[in-house]
Amino acid sequence: MQRNKFSKSLLLATIALTYSISGYSAASKADYRDFVPSPEQPYYFEDGKVDFGTYNGFRRYHADCHVCHGPAGMGSSYAPALLESLKVMSYGDFVNAVVTGRVGMNNSVMPSFAKNIDVIKYIADIYAYLKARSDGVIGMNRPAKFPKVKKLIADK
Ligand code: HEC
CA-CA distance, 2 to 102, in Å (whole number)? Predict the structure, then answer.
């Protein structure tokens, strides 16, 4: 009984930590100005446009991941197609892979991005972009976007 309680609170603490690392918080959406990403709904899509974070994810992906994972998440001979991976991978597992890196078959290696601020800071955006690709919501090209939404300092 005691033990169960403990493992439950440990689980909740882990979930809370995962969310706070990524800057996620729970909320529902009304339009793109109210949209707050969550692991369940990481991107916003309406009238052929994505939220600014998802668009930023597209840019970050192409700067840091494209070289191995291929154009628009489609994979290469060196690294897997992330748009397939994200059909089964949780947000937590995604973050974990990027933070710790991977050693794959044929000695292919993915470095740890733990010290790359341009990746870690925007990891939720990269996830959002790949999830939108994985869900088939956006195509290969640069997606159209809604304007960046200014956040109050208090929201931070
Ligand atoms: C130097 C090449 C390289 C770069 C750059 C790279 N990766 Fe990888 N990544 C790999 C390899 C190789 C694997 C497969 C390892 C394996 O087989 O388990 C991998 C695996 C992954 C996985 C696990 C996929 C799965 O199905 O288990 C994720 C998630 C991932 N990478 C995300 C990223 C993201 C996001 C970026 C950009 C920030 C990135 N990678 C940049 C080489 C790379």
Answer: 37
What's the pLDDT tens digit per position in 65-98?
999 999 999 999 899 999 999 999 999 999 999 9
In short, whether 102's Cβ falls inside 6 Å of ligand 1 is yes
pTM higher than 0.85 for the full model? Answer: no
How many helices and strands in the chain, by DSSP H and E? 7, 5
- The boundaries of the domain holding residue 44 are 2-148
How many structural domains is the chain composed of?
1
pLDDT digits (tens, 9 = 90+) for 41-57: 999 999 999 999 999 99
The enclosing domain of 50 has a CATH number of 1.10.760.10
| Measured CA angle at 94 (ends 30, 120), to 5 deg | 80
Q: Which ligand 1 atom is the nearest neighbour of the CA of 88?
A: 26
Residue 156 lies in a domain: no
